Amino acid sequence: MNLSLAFEPLISWPLLGLVLAPLLLLALVGLWFRQRGAVFRFAALLALTAALLNPVLLDEEREALKSVVAVVVDRSQSQDIGERTKQTDEALAGLQQRLGRFKQFDVRVVEAGKSEAAEERTETRLFGALESAFRDVPPSRIGGAIMITDGEVHDAPGGTPDFNAPLHALITGNDQEKDRRIRFENAPRFGLVGKPLEMTYRVIGTNNEASSVDVRVSVNGEQVSVERATIGQAMPLQVTIPGAGRNIVELAIDPEPDELTDTNNRAIALIDGIRENLRVLLVSGEPHAGERTWRNLLKSDASVDLVHFTILRPPEKQDGTPINELSLIAFPTRELFVEKIKDFDLIIFDRYQHRDVLPILYYDYIAEYVEKGGALLIAAGPEYAGESSIARTPLMSALPAMPTGEVVEKAFYPRLTELGQRHPVTRGLDGSATEPPHWSRWFRTIGVENPGGEAVMKGADNRPLLLLDRKGEGRVGMFLSDQGWLWARGFEGGGPHVQLYRRIAHWLMKEPELEEERLTADGRGMMLEIRRQTMSDDPGPAQIITPSGKAMTVKLERAEPGVFLGSIETSEIGLYQVGNGDLKALAHVGPVNAPEFTDVVSTENRLKAPAEATGGSVRRLAPSSALGNLAGGVTLPSVVPVRSTGAAAGNDWIGLRTTDDSVLKAVSRVPLFGGFLGLGLLLLALGSMWYREGR
Question: Which helix or strand (DSSP H or E) is residue 667 part of?
Fold first, then answer.
């Protein structure tokens, strides 16, 4: 029963004051001068005031509200180490049992660290989960919070949390744990291909170790060196980036005996390899319509350093004019093809023919350049079919096809061969999906016999138009027409000459993305995505080894000609090894060097400040002295309801606050000066006043 008195005046408060104030003044004056009947007049005034104020006795029926208690359970990956998961489950079951005895507590269990989103799994964010649990609860109803965690919480505040209630932390693991880890201190995001890259790293041990350890350095899965590192000190590292695009530099150390986990015994750095400016030598046999197309294309690429020579004055055109009177630059044959030939990434012969400008021996140097890894592109015109063809020089050993001497002058649409539809140089070429292709015609094809390599485009009468071949460690491309300039000029709508020419040049210079047989993998969120480029019809499934060593397979589905894709949702953060046939690839899923595994030794320090600031406590579930073991061996403190002003923690107990809040269920009203009773009292007071005044 909750009794209270309320007033419900019959008239407004201002009007009530105007009526009663003069009467009260007269009554007080009468009492001051002790006039006859003054007491009765004052009593009558009080009765009139009570009648106008209309006092009501309220009897409220209220239901007490429960205090809200949050139990935040850490389910992050670091909790899977050792016996922590078992300790967590047993502690949660014990707490639910103990809290269930108290009807004044509304218990909310929140599990954190198992979100599907990768960005939410990079760190253990228990206070974010705690805030969500109390989002709909007023501060007066928060009874407290209990966290079951290993203590490695990455969003712990430095001071008091945003709720005024006790925070208690129950720490899994034990105080004798040890772990050794490695991390990058400085890892640049980009590096030049083939150039040394300076990096630094540090090996960190438990309890300030000062010994040394071997560090294995791997680049893209291949071990390149073993370094000796002093634990605790920043160590320099120099690696060479092998190729353009994504490169994975991995550092690894051996686990020590009784170490918690070897997950953080590896550190990963993702480095994008960037090529220095590519050096291209373009030699045009004589001025023609297609020469400008090649020059404009190569000059438009800021990453290409172009050296271009056009043979304007071959030896047979000598007319006795003195050299010092000519405005031409002498062709530096020895400098280009002997002294500096290795400096070029690509050599292009555009409608070039042997006219004694190059000594015959120099063609042998060019063939040797290709065999040792160089790139050569032949843009053939009618000269290739003539008596002065470069196929009649020692360069013939590097060429993919020999001329028949035939030049076919016939209109045709360049088309992709069946092989070309799968080859990365010509696959998906703009306009190739229709028949005829959505580009202009050409009108000349150079006849060849016994073509080698891969014919990816065909011309008139299905003759080879574009040949791509490997010679030793190098590559050779051959365009058997000189009319690509028709596309550049927009004839009959033009064609994708920029796209095609660039792909050819990049394939010749071994751009990884244009390899016929290529396996790549990438992590997007917690999804591992696999891409397989191949010239075969079915590459088979991909084999995967997870960071923990588990093996699995993923079926690769055909996405387009020459491309097969596969994906699998993962639960582990780390480096995955992917294999298919003889190809292997590495992919890192989840955040690189996530804070979740930066330090896995359980600790009380991170939660000590916020817990003590709220009057709570931090204690281990497996202390050296037991205070009440459960079946699994963890020790749980007793749970005690406390008032808001009382202590909230003791040696063997934790306190949770109860609330005084309640909700109104019903109200009973009893007017004290209403009805016949009020009327009778009022008449009695007035009658007494009149009676006394009349005597």
Answer: strand 662-671
518 close to 245: Cβ distance less than 8 angstroms: no
Q: Which amino acid is located at 463 in the chain?
A: R
Q: Is 633 left (phi over 0), alpha (psi -120 to 50) or beta?
A: left
Confidence check: pLDDT of 428 > 50: yes
Consecutive H or E run containing 17: helix 13-32
Q: Kindly give the pairing relationship between strand 653-657 and strand 266-274.
A: unpaired
The backbone torsions φ and ψ at residue 532, rounded to the nearest 5 degrees and listed phi first, read: -120, 120
Distance CA 603, CA 175 (A): 8
The residue count of the chain comes to 695
Residue-wise pLDDT tens digits, 390-405: 999 999 999 999 999 9
Cα–Cα nearest to 252, from 289, 198, 201: 201
Amino acid code (one letter) for 541: P
C-beta separation of 112 from 73 below 8 A: yes
Q: Write out the DSSP string of 187-201.
A: --SEEEBTSEEEEEE
Mean pLDDT of all residues in 439-452: 92
CA Rg value for the chain: 44
- Quick one: which of 428, 444, 539, 446 has its CA closest to 483? 444
- What DSSP element (H or E) covers 53? helix 38-53
A 10 A CB-CB count for 473 gives 11
Indicate the helix (H) or strand (E) that contains 292: helix 291-299
Instruction: Record the tokens describing residue 41, joined without a space.
Output: 């007049």
Residue 627 pLDDT level (bands cut at 50, 70, 90):
very low
DSSP SS3 for 14 = helix
pLDDT at 564: 95
Closest alpha carbon to 474 in 298, 341, 290: 341
DSSP string, 436-504: S-SS--EEEEEEEES--SEEEEE-GGG-EEEEEEEETTEEEEEES-S-THHHHTTGGG---HHHHHHHH
Query: Which tokens sit at 58?
Result: 């309220």
Q: Do 423 and 454 form a contact (C-beta atoms < 8 A)? A: yes
Distance between CA atoms of 230 and 439, rounded to whole angstroms?
64
Distance CA 630, CA 86 (A): 12
| 86 secondary structure, DSSP code | H
Distance in angstroms (rounded) separating the CA atoms of residues 571 and 121: 10
DSSP secondary-structure letter at 335?
I
The one-character DSSP state at 425 is T
| Region for 54 from its dihedrals, namely left if φ exceeds 0, alpha if ψ lies in -120 to 50, beta otherwise | left
Q: What distances in angstroms separate CA 451 from CA 203, 313, 348, 389, one per listed residue?
A: 57, 33, 19, 16
| Helices and strands (H and E) in the chain: how many | 11, 36
Q: Would you say 510 and 516 are in contact if contact means Cβ atoms under 8 Å apart?
A: no
CB 181, CB 266: distance < 8 Å = no
Is the separation of the CB atoms in 163 and 175 below 8 Å?
no
Asked if residue 626 has pLDDT above 50, the reply is no
Q: Do the Cβ atoms of 442 and 486 come closer than 8 Å?
A: yes
Return the SS3 of 556: coil
- Write down the pTM of the prediction: 0.67
Q: How far are the Cα atoms of 25, 178, 465, 605 from residue 601, in angstroms, in the given order?
A: 81, 7, 65, 11
- In tens, the pLDDT along 566-611 reads 999 887 877 888 999 888 888 888 776 666 667 788 888 888 888 8
C-alpha 188/C-alpha 203 separation (Å) is 19
